[in-house]
Fold this protein.
Amino acid sequence: MGVDKHKILLIEDEESLSNVVAMNLELEGFVVTTVTNGREAIEQKEEVSQYDLVILDVMLPEVSGWDICTTYKNSANTPILFISAKGSSSDRIKGLKLGADDYLSKPFDLEELLLRVKVLILRTNEKDHANVNQIFIGDLVVNTKTYEVFKDQEKVTDLTKREVELLSLFVQHEGEVVSRNFILDELWGKDHFPTTRTIDNYILSFRKLFEEDAKKPRFFHSVRGVGYKFINKGKSSQKQIK
């Protein structure tokens, strides 16, 4: 099997620059999706988690890069690299405060852009490889090796292997709508599995454990007629146990 190529979302309204940047990224082996309008970029918010990096201009038609950055960071942990003609220190500080991971002023050297892209993606990959033993949801921490749940380093309860597998699946697809049938296929296989109601029962248990108000979920959201969406805003979902 081949190695999956890293995917980049490039949001830039200047067509000539967008074409040059996209071409060079593709020559480096990246898969690039281009967007030229701020409103169209906002509509991509549900898909942001599928990308390894977002390259984002500040001055865009209809919706600014500032607002797009805020929206994206509320939906996923995908790193964001600003590229902008607004190159003052106050602009760079604003971008970083909004959650961007890097800021490059126009005009820029193409080689420098490519270097920053590789550094950001490498940094993210290192975190992803390390973040395999703990799942953080609100104030609780799930140890995926021992199936134990902790709060403030005090054990709260134990989970079953299946519950940990389901939580891990949600983390892998954070921000995406995951159907009940997909969950059943992934965890039970296509030949032997219970009804979709089984998944609903697991979600009820998760809400009782992780949500402050099970009737107004913050993490485990129902998507009528389809399945569920796991959103873990403001905190990285997984960390390495030391």
